[in-house]
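**User:**
If convenient, please work through this fold.
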Amino acid sequence: MDTPEPSPRDATRPFSGRFRRVLRRLVFFGSAVTLNLVACLWMADLFWRTGFQRGHFTLLAVFFVLNGLLVLGSMHALFGAWDIICGRRRAVRITRLADGHSGPLAQRFAIVMPVYNEDCIRICGRIEAIYRSIQATGHLPAFDFFILSDTRDLNLWVLEETAWTNLCRRLDGFGHIYYRRRKSNANRKAGNIGDFVRTWGGGYEGMLVLDADSLMDGADIVKMARVMQLYPRLGILQTPPRLIRGASVFTRLQQFAMRLYGPLFLRGLNFWQLNGGSYWGHNALIRMQPFSECCELPALPGREPFGGRILSHDFVEAALMVRAGWEVWLAWDIEGTYEEAPPTLIDHLKRDRRWCQGNLQHLWLIFARKLPFAARVQLFMGIMAYLACPIWFLFLLQSTWLAWDRRFSGLSNLTIPGYAGHWWHITALTQSLILALAILVLLFLPKFLALGGAILATKVRRSFGGALPLLAGVILETLVSMLLAPCVMVAHTMIVISIVLGRSVGWGTQNRETDGTAWPDAIRFHALPSVLGIVWTYVAIHISPTFAAWMSPILLGLVFSIPVSVWTSRSRYGSALATRHILATPEELAPPEVIRLADAATAALDPALSASHEGRFGITAAVVDPYVNGVHVSLLEPARMSEPELDLAERCLSEGLHAMSDRDLTDLLYLAPAMLHMHRSVWLRPAESIHPLWTQAVESYRRRLEGSAS
């Protein structure tokens, strides 16, 4: 926030007054609109000088949108830099709002982590790190932890239960760490959180929502909770997560760029949004009561992909919160908040497929009644994050067509003076070079500002490994990003087209670890941009060498999309860069305590209670292993077994797991009498009366004992 810190007696008043909000937004967006209009008029005058055609109208319209988005991004960086330099004394840090307040927290908070087919050991490792980090502050009694599982893989379900049990036993966390799996994963993550709020929300003032890959420092969590206690108008306190644990070149590029350039954009974003911020879906503290009352998501008219349940629920929930009179803040100075990123370009684009559909659904909401201005802008920026690529693709196609038409139309190259030529006596070539230079300045301005600020600030420069590694990282990130951008452009264009044609996205599991993209996968996934790049290169050269040179950054990225995708996915190249501190981040060079705690976490692992032994994995362990069966049954509701359910259990015993459908297995796993019946049967019945799967699982205990004895 960037307003004077209110005293406790002012805590019930708006954090930022209406005049300040209006003035800042007028200055920010007025500057962006003015710059965009000047650039568009300059281009229109250039078209007039070289001979205006009907196709130029479309090109100008597309340029207006694209350049507007470019200007908007540059303004965020520019105003962010101004805020850092000139607003240092006036800027209020969220971490300082609770200064002078100590003692136990008066209210209780829940830390919730929705999961879907994730690595349960890593999930519990993050929970353990956060638990120990909060414990070190002395405020652990004010927090409860909830693992909210929507996992559909039945084997992973059993693994989650055993990992949670081990975690609670090692941390003495029973009564503080809870586990719940939904029978139906209706409405995906939003439904998972909503089910928690309806069932347990009344016992807590707020909830800290995490993703499965989230990690947060305990001291920062306590500060956030204390700020929410002190400011009763605060509905959501969003933190900016930092990317960590990047192994591949692609992930290291992402985390380096976000860590270096991110603070500028965050301060610029906070400059105009103030207390009308947004919610990003995770690593945010939410006040329970207004969230429950105001943030029920409407079902959009029609069917998916544009209708139905809202996928990108976070922006909408923040908008509903602000509309109801609550405040949403961006805690730009909270540093101990982390997440992980997809390891390859292909994984990144697969995730974008889901996010794109969710953001495009916001087209229904952007003109909704009584929606605050800041919420409309944020919805618009979310939509344009994915529509920008198809618009850019259209701009390039239109430019190629006009260049082709001019090359082979036989039109004269004589030019008209135009306003620029009349007033400043410059040629059309000079005018076009000025426009190109202005666009390049807007494009690279955030990088220059961030790099210059980091080099001049000794502490920041050293945290990135020094001036030379920092400079090398910026150059490498810029070059590789230029190669990746055309491939992303084509991929996003195809994603938008598929959504427009009515293809809805599923709910896939996010890949968080990989050893790189295989060449066959890269060829299959990037065949279209590669072929398109080859054809487009031929056309560009046929038009003129000058046009081909102008298009070369785009064409190179398309033609080499397959090898670039494979190269950036390799962890060994990422490791080679890491040894030289290139693309290094402060969190990599000097890991914070909570990251070290997560790396060393082992509480979820215990050989005595495990569902991952050879021959006894997942469901098999839940039936055969006495400890795993006991844990699983203890988490089920009491029930009576009917005759059809007994028949189902007997069929599972005689025919094995592979003969059962997922639905039948789910019914059995949710039925405590059936699980107990099968457990007793596999141990007491003769081997010839049950399926070999069960006898082999029982025999695995003998092999383990014989192996330990020898």
